[in-house]
Design goal:
Blueprint (H helix, E strand, L loop, with lengths): L2 E6 L6 H14 L3 E6 L3 E2 L3 E2 L4 H9 L5 E4 L2 H4 L3 H14 L5 E6 L4 H13 L2 H12 L4 H12 L11 H15 L5 E6 L18 H11 L5 H4 L23 H10 L13 H10 L6 H8 L6 H13 L9 E7 L4 H10 L3 E3 L9 H18 L12 E2 L1
Parallel strand pairs: 1-2, 1-6, 2-5, 6-7, 8-9, 8-10
Antiparallel strand pairs: 3-4, 5-8
Helix pairs in contact: 4-8, 5-8, 6-7, 11-14, 13-14
């Protein structure tokens, strides 16, 4: 029996995601689809615009059978760390046979060669990478330059497009971990990853939908609604101020001033360079996003800075993800899947939060998110411990 795994954020779940779920099942002839999904914080180093349960519900209504949550340190890690953690979680299930991910090129053969180089890191490649870093290139540009110098047959566009680059990380993680999970890729449909304009005839990118919601101040316009397969799951967000990192600004500032003379490089993803810049510019803080822009440099990308600040705010010091399968929801017809996961999986199955099972930083991150959401939207606080398991 084939079971296909998908790694996702679904922030929010849109038409392209629904197509991907259906295409992944079709291409792998899968009986079930397991999604490992980011929780309330996402890989670009920011809170999700929509809470994890709303996003999980949308996925379950549109083809997913089981949603497992990625630990916060994985969901907010670098592309390499995010991919390794997500692939590791899927492999640890013992039941997922295939992994299907989107890419701009849609060609697995084109991706396998550069992924193999990244996984093995031959000496010549490492020397090119060191040279690029010495020249002052950022890490992503340095790695792409080194790959192109090491093997000039690799198409340059494969090293530039966001989803192709993430696909390389998935393939690298599969190879390095000797995972038996089989990879598949589908060509990403619709708008470009960074396309902000919404067109009813074209599937929008998640970033474009988020930008449109910011511009409309939370109003779900007809142009937005057509992009969402299950818009009813976001009913609580209609007309409400969209959640961004700036809603967490005072929380971050309080954390930065709590220990003003202590180095911050003990936090996950915070380098000595970033720690020094934070301390030197701390008095110029006015918001989360403004401070992120202030701190970025040629060598420190905006996303890397945002991740570091988020980890400081959430007090994430440990880069070792919790060894649990945290279930966010499942479809009733997938109950046999849960039984097999319990039998064959490496980790414990967690269907409700417990202080004895989930680490404190995970629970704290969710409490913080729900507290900010309740205050921002003027609604009651949702206690994680009182939530019923999402079953459709």
């Amino acid at each position: 029996m084939n079971i296909v795994g998908i790694i996702a954020e679904y922030n929010p779940f849109h038409r392209g995601h629904a197509w991907h779920l259906a295409e992944a099942r079709r291409r792998t002839d899968a009986a079930y689809t397991v999604v490992v999904m980011s929780g309330n914080y996402v890989q670009r180093g920011a809170p999700a615009m929509f809470d994890k349960y709303s996003r999980a519900r949308a996925a379950l209504k549109n083809g997913a059978d089981l949603i497992l949550e990625l630990p916060p340190c994985v969901s907010t890690g670098s592309a390499e760390y995010f991919a390794a953690g997500a692939v590791g979680l899927l492999t640890a299930t013992g039941i997922v046979t295939d992994l299907c991910f989107g890419s701009e090129c849609g060609d697995l053969d084109r991706l396998l060669k550069p992924a193999h180089i990244l996984a093995q890191e031959p000496e010549a490649f490492r020397q090119y990478l060191k040279e690029a870093l010495r020249l002052g290139m950022s890490w992503p540009k340095a790695r792409a330059w080194a790959l192109g110098r090491y093997d000039r047959t690799i198409p340059q566009e494969t090293l530039e497009h966001p989803n192709d680059l993430l696909a390389l990380e998935y393939l690298k993680a599969l190879e390095r971990s000797h995972s038996p999970v089989r990879p598949h890729t589908v060509r990403r449909i619709g708008a470009h990853y960074h396309e902000a304009r919404l067109c009813p005839e074209q599937t929008a990118a998640a970033s474009g939908i988020r930008k449109a919601l910011l511009q409309s101040q939370g109003i779900f316009t007809p142009e937005l609604l057509v992009q969402l397969p299950s818009p009813e799951v976001y009913e609580a967000y209609r007309g409400k101020t969209p959640i961004t990192e700036d809603a967490f600004s005072l929380l971050l500032l309080e954390r930065l001033w709590r220990h003003p003379s202590v180095s911050l490089d003990a936090f996950f993803g915070v380098t000595k360079e970033l720690s020094g810049r934070i301390r030197r510019h701390q008095e110029h803080f006015s918001s989360f996003s403004q401070f992120t822009d202030l701190l970025k440099t040629r060598n420190l990308t905006r996303t890397a800075v945002s991740r570091g600040l988020l980890h400081i705010m959430l007090n994430i010091r440990n880069d070792q993800p919790a060894g649990v399968f945290r279930v966010l929801g499942f479809r009733k017809n997938a109950e046999p899947l849960l039984k097999e996961l319990t039998k064959q999986g490496t980790f414990s199955l967690v269907t409700s939060p417990s202080d004895e099972v989930l680490p404190e930083d995970w629970l704290y991150a969710d409490r913080l998110y729900e507290s900010v959401r309740a205050l921002l939207h003027g609604q009651p606080y949702e206690n994680e411990h009182r939530r019923k398991l999402l079953v459709l």
